[in-house]
């Protein structure tokens, strides 16, 4: 199987009061059709890695290849377009727009690409329905539970049928029952044409991935499973 995403000698250094090496010369390959988990203590570099993969942040050195194309971090427009069409991102704190309903939060992600409000609305309703949220479509984020908000965020992340799904501690704010539901929803998104990478502190959820990547101090400590 070919590598869909490749990281070559990736380093990320932050210069704040002191120099912090958040990622240290990382080489990693991710294959389509697989689910990868990132684990490791707080500060080990999991979010930094996901932010680079989402093309939001730029590495200090090294290169990232997606689908055999080296990412040019100076081409912001192209990267933004690739992100909105092909990468679904799920954050710990949902990152929903509070002034918009669940339906609007989800449909806006498609609208940004196709500019067709009718089909965006139909697809958003369908996606919310598939995540068990049919009766929460017109609710605002403040009127939803944490688990519901995270499922709205998942709907938003998948409405454009992304090739890559990145989730950064998607269940970090949820109780165990809701966390399990959200995780089940996330793992249901696995298919042969999609790559899923998530960071978690929960060992049990990490075990559900095809491959566990353990990080420590910006380095890869161990890799367990099918890389
Ligand atoms: N914007 C930033 N500016 C400066 N330092 C940063 C920045 N973002 C992260 N860091 C530092 O980089 C290191 C890696 O942080 P990162 O957020 O990737 O860790 P993490 O593994 O996601 O931790 P957690 O499990 O707590 O989410 C930490 O030492 C952190 O303090
Ligand atoms: Mg983090």
Contiguous low-pLDDT stretches (5 residues minimum) are none
Summarize the biggest pleated sheet. Answer: 6 strands, mixed
Instruction: Write down how many β-strands occur, each being a DSSP E stretch of 2 or more residues.
Output: 10
Order of helices and strands: EEEHEEHEHHHEHEHEE
Strand content: 25-35%
Inertia-based shape: globular
- For this structure, the CATH topology is Rossmann fold
User: How many individual helices?
Assistant: 7
CATH architecture: 3-Layer(aba) Sandwich
Under CATH, the homologous superfamily reads P-loop containing nucleotide triphosphate hydrolases
Average pLDDT value? 95
Bound chemical compounds: adenosine-5'-triphosphate, magnesium ion
Could you explain the architecture of this structure?
The chain is of the alpha/beta class. The chain has one domain (35-59, 72-225): P-loop containing nucleotide triphosphate hydrolases (Rossmann fold), CATH 3.40.50.300. The chain is 33% helix and 29% strand. A six-stranded mixed beta sheet has the order 6-7-8-3-9-10. Strands 2-1-4-5 form a four-stranded antiparallel beta sheet, with helices on one face. 40% of the residues are buried. The structure holds adenosine-5'-triphosphate and magnesium ion. Adenosine-5'-triphosphate binds next to strand 2 and helix 1.
């Amino acid at each position: 199987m070919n590598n869909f995403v490749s990281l070559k000698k990736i380093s990320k250094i932050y210069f704040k009061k002191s120099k912090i090496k958040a990622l240290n010369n990382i080489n990693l390959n991710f294959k389509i059709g697989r689910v990868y988990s990132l684990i490791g203590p707080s500060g080990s570099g999991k979010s930094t890695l996901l932010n680079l993969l989402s093309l939001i942040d730029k590495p200090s050195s090294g290169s990232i290849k997606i689908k055999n194309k080296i990412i040019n971090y100076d081409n912001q427009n192209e990267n933004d377009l690739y992100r909105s069409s092909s990468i679904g991102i799920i954050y710990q704190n949902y990152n929903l727009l509070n002034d918009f309903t669940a339906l609007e939060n989800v449909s806006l992600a498609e609208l940004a690409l196709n500019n067709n409000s009718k089909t965006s609305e139909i697809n958003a309703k369908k996606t919310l329905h598939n995540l068990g949220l049919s009766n929460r479509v017109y609710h605002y984020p403040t009127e939803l539970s944490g688990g519901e908000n995270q499922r709205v965020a998942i709907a938003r992340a998948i409405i454009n049928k992304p090739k890559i799904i990145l989730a950064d501690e998607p269940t970090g704010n949820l109780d165990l029952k809701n966390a399990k539901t959200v995780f089940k929803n996330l793992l249901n998104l696995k298919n042969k044409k999609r790559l899923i990478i998530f960071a978690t502190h929960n060992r049990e959820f990490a075990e559900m991935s095809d491959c566990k990547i353990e990080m420590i101090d910006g380095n890869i400590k161990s890799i367990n499973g099918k890389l």
